[in-house]
Amino acid sequence: xxxxxxxxxxxxxxxxxxxxxxxxxxxxxxxxxxxxxxxxxxxxxxxxxxxxxxxxxxxxxxxxxxxxxxxxxxxxxxxxxxxxxxxxxxxxxxxxxxxxxxxxxxxxxxxxxxxxxxxxxxxxxxxxxxxxxxxxxxxxxxxxxxxxxxxxxxxxxxxxxxxxxxxxxxxxxxxxxxxxxxxxxxxxxxxxxxxxxxxxxxxxxxxxxxxxxxxxxxxxxxxxxxxxxxxxxxxxxxxxxxxxxxxxxxxxxxxxxxxxxxxxxxxxxxxxxxxxxxxxxxxxxxxxxxxxxxxxxxxxxxxxxxxxxxxxxxxxxxxxxxxxxxxxxxxxxxxxxxxxxxxxxxxxxxxxxxxxxxxxxxxxxxxxxxxxxxxxxxxxxxxxxxxxxxxxxxxxxxxxxxxxxxxxxxxxxxxxxxxxxxxxxxxxxxxxxxxxxxxxxxxxxxxxxxxxxxxxxxxxxxxxxxxxxxxxxxxxxxxxxxxxxxxxxxxxxxxxxxxxxxxxxxxxxxxxxxxxxxxxxxxxxxxxxxxxxxxxxxxxxxxxxxxxxxxxxxxxxxxxxxxxxxxxxxxxxxxxxxxxxxxxxxxxxxxxxxxxxxxxxxxxxxxxxxxxxxxxxxxxxx
Length: 622
Hints:
The protein is α+β, with helices and mostly antiparallel strands and about 625 residues long. The chain has helices at about 15-20, 35-40, 45-55, 95-110, 145-150, 240-250, 295, 345, 390-415, 430-435, 490-495, 510-515, 550-560, 600-615; strands spanning about 5-10, 25-30, 60, 80-85, 115-125, 155-160, 190-195, 205-210, 215-220, 255-260, 265-270, 280-285, 305-310, 325, 330, 330-335, 355-365, 375-385, 420-425, 445-455, 465-475, 480-490, 535-540, 565-575, 580-590, 620.
């Protein structure tokens, strides 16, 4: 069917007439706020109305842009595009009134727009309040169009110059409700589309085989939209899988490749050493006392059920969680934080061939502070080889050079940007990570180097960021030295495709994957431009004689905000001179990269966050 286009707030109908003649195949409905008698008295408007009607367009008068559904039957409300050029309340209305007008207009549009339709809003230079404006007004003095549209679940998907001179016969009119023109130099056309809804996460139970037992566990709330996404499956066209496949192809030119065909469980049993017990997602294994009818139907009546501890502060000295119910101590499991936990087991298998390069990949899960490159879940690929003692240095160098060449080639082919990949001595977290996540004291794995990238593709190039690690381990039975390289596929996909926000990799919006059809890597073009951000502060007293767990603090923020908190900054720390009580003040910034997030939604999330930190961390709000 021919697209239906709705034009709102026409003054002299010159834009509608020009558009109608340029796109004759579409069906047009042109409207104005004024009555027919008043408009028809103006010669230019009357002439354009005749042009429209001669072209088959429908012309409506006295149409209120905030009540659009009232003018159309339900069957006639699905417009493919709605235009509103230079909306204004009239006279000397200020920015607040014009924001209110836009808010009501967008809410009204949501009721008459097709699911994949567009809303075009042209504003004078500076009014929109986005970085596209030149010059850009102060936020408080703009119409804040992106934030206003978010309230009706619209996102800004494109911004184009409004070229009045290219529209044949167009004459802007309506300056302060008068039949006179105004300047449209530098004006911008803002194109909005519907957003996918914010997730209201419901509990999800994951079923799996663990050894000889059929088990299930409740997925941590902040991970429910990230479990079982199958990005690495053969049918997937996700860039994470494409990067993995292309890197493997490069490595296969230097090393014999052996795909490690084994099922690695999501859950790992054991303990973590050091202070890392709060950095993993703990799952508590409990015997199932009274299986529900549904669980019996699923064959779980004789199995076990896992529950999840989101924010537990109690652990023994080994970082091992103990949950006691009556006289029963539960078993301790956590979601795997790294595939390196399984390197030793795999290398000892009879099926593993020395001299080959084994490939192991899958999602891993870690609690971590909120930052642009700290990913609570990502896809890890581990390349594993075994060589005679004394040969490991040469093998590591060859492996790193091949990986570096593969990353550089992928990045250059897609973006053409300069890229510097360096091998650095591992320090801090990277150097101790495998020991902290060790399954047992007998597993000795040592990370020796970090693979770091410096580029301007993701913004500032002043700071290197780590995309992987290289190290060795001692095989226990045959005396060989195990060499491994672990890469973060998500960070590599971001690097290669120019994806600035890791959350975009997990979006459910089809406009993301549609850019990588056929598994082709290309530069990503965001479908949500200049998303609004909202800042909220929280201050509280820390419980006396307790260590404040900042990782848990960040994890709570991730969970209650559905991953819309993009930054947490400590802006003040104070210790009372008399009581020695410590007070902290943090600033949280809310922003969504792919969905509409309104000011009200962010405020509601902040209220929930305050309640949760009070409940889980036992802080006293100020």
